Amino acid sequence: MLETMKGAIFDLDGVIVDTAKYHYLAWRSLAKRLGFEFTESDNERLKGVSRMESLQILLEVGGVEANEAERLEMAEAKNKEYVEYISRLEPAEILPGAREYLLELRNRGVKIALGSASKNAAFILGRLGIAELFDAVVDGTKVSKAKPDPEVFLAASAALGLNPADCVVFEDAAAGVEAGKAAGCKVVGIGSAVILRDADCVIAGLHELV
């Protein structure tokens, strides 16, 4: 599977870099302003989910009602705080093995894309100093349907000029694994074999592949 793939499509958070902690801090801060606690356990439900859907889950947790204008204002405030965190990101925060594996794939002639719900993906890749290693970046600014919908991976494989069947997706969330399979790609799960049981194989991190 990995030896014969023509394209590799990577999720961002939890695969290339751990920005999930910054998302959590920003969501927790918003919840505190709204008058309730948002725990790390609650935050697990936001993995691989779009910003507005994440907000919906957070409001459900807190039992908070909000109209459309208020929701947009909340999402913007959360994102502003998150961007403040990631504006201080450094190349050293790339997860172990990620840069090395990306370089190895480029040397093999495998095309590389990012497939992420994040609207800050291009900015993050720039901060990490690895933007030039990607042939295509498909993120939340280019797709409208959140995982487990396969839109992001279908768009990424198309951007690489490849059939989904010739691509392998690297994902750390169950919704992302489901999206990759629905797109017709092979999927490498990164994390728990129990949570990612539908992946074609599961590893602890990209460091296992270099």
- CATH hierarchy class name of the largest domain: Alpha Beta
Q: What Rg do the Cα atoms give?
A: 17 Å
So how many helices? 8
Shape: globular
Q: Approximately how much beta-strand content do the residues carry?
A: 5-15%
Number of strand segments: 6
Give a verbal description of the structure.
This protein is α/β, with parallel strands linked by helices and 210 residues long. The protein folds into 2 domains: 131 residues, Rossmann fold (3-Layer(aba) Sandwich); 67 residues, DNA polymerase, domain 1. 42% of the residues lie in helices and 12% in strands. Helix 8 links the parallel strand 4 and strand 5. The mean pLDDT is 95. Belongs to the HAD-like hydrolase superfamily. CbbY/CbbZ/Gph/YieH family.
Task: Furnish the topology, listing elements before pairings.
Layout: E1 7-10, H1 20-34, H2 40-43, H3 51-62, H4 68-86, H5 98-108, E2 111-115, H6 121-128, E3 136-138, H7 151-159, E4 167-171, H8 174-183, E5 186-190, E6 201-203
Structure in a nutshell:
The protein is an alpha/beta fold and 210 residues long.
Features:
12% strand, DNA polymerase, domain 1, 42% helix, 6 strands, globular, 210 residues, alpha/beta, Rossmann fold, 2 domains
